[in-house]
Amino acid sequence: MKPNDTTEQQHSQYLKRCFQLARLGETYAFPNPIVGCVIVHNNEIIAEGFHKQYGEAHAEAHAIKSALEPYNLRALEPRLKESTIYVSLEPCSHTGKTPPCADLIIKHKFKRIVFSSSDPNPLVNSSDKIRAAGIEVIEPAELEPELVKQSDYLNRIFFKNIKEPGSAWVVVKIATTTDGEMITEANEPRWITNSESRKDVHRMRSCHDLLITSIRTVEADDPEYNVRHSAEELGLAEIKDPDIAILKSSTNLKNRNYKIFQSSKRKIIEAKVTDLKSTVKEFINLGYKRIMIEAGPKLSEAFIESGLVDEIVHYQASAIETKYPGFLLINSEIINSANEPVNTKRYFINTGS
Ligand SMILES: NC(=O)c1ccc[n+]([C@@H]2O[C@H](COP(=O)([O-])OP(=O)(O)OC[C@H]3O[C@@H](n4cnc5c(N)ncnc54)[C@H](OP(=O)(O)O)[C@@H]3O)[C@@H](O)[C@H]2O)c1
Known about the structure:
By secondary structure, the chain is α/β, with parallel strands linked by helices. It is built from twelve helices and twelve strands.
């Protein structure tokens, strides 16, 4: 074992816990980043926190508050001076809707801070300030690249929004059989993937604000497109159903008896499309910046070809073969084959990530 292995393992272990905590806030933190934080004393986690809601307290503030709670006997104030604070994103150093976390870290004189992603916001540059206060700072460049990649992935939507303020993050979810088909029988509704991947899709729905589908898919499948798992099952603090956009080009829905219309809590937009780019722009203007597509091959392919898509999440089931090969699909450079029963692949399209 190299001399640094133990420290590296500890950084990895505690930062991965930060990632789990960060993901808890994925439903409502946006347009803020998702962030998790743990405070470690003598190789023991004494407090944890995450950013739950846009505009509310940051992960570091939650963790420090929890460390100072009178009932938290493991974390008395003086111990913070001997503790390392792990955060999945560089602490803020400016006053936004809450006071700067860098000041809080300096105030409590932590021994060390380790953070796994740098904040692209030019207003955030806390490393120098924290270091100048005599606190050791371990930055992403000093961590395992794979860990930093995982950390950056958590905030891909936030990062894009900072770099391109008027844009949206667009993800296409597709489920295919081993031979690349999205439909198993001629337009017969059927789940291609397994319960774990369906749970993952429900989680994605909760973390996006608009779900785009098509008139064809609504009529063929009568889907609910809601979140039918508990927050706990999905690793989220809270869940919500996304609003729905049903795209059509020529025809109209036959009626309003479809399941999608049964919830009064969310907005359903029926949009006649001539050009997908203008349609997405209209959705962005309505405030939808996290958009997922759940539709059949025609619309999914049209989105991918339009250049609007940032990411494809592809669930591939190798167990099922189709009766109708050649019905579709997206080019084979994007879809790779897999041997696992259900294999999830995530592809970035525009971001260069
Ligand atoms: N495996 C999966 O991940 C998955 C997910 C959802 C659905 N499905 C399956 O997909 C099947 C339906 O697939 P599909 O290919 O027939 O339909 P689709 O891809 O769901 O939607 C195509 C429809 O979208 C509308 N549309 C609006 N703008 C468009 C554009 N720019 N380009 C293309 N279409 C546009 C058109 O409506 P108009 O009719 O008005 O022209 C068109 O008929 C269903 O059987 C369903 O089970 C599979």
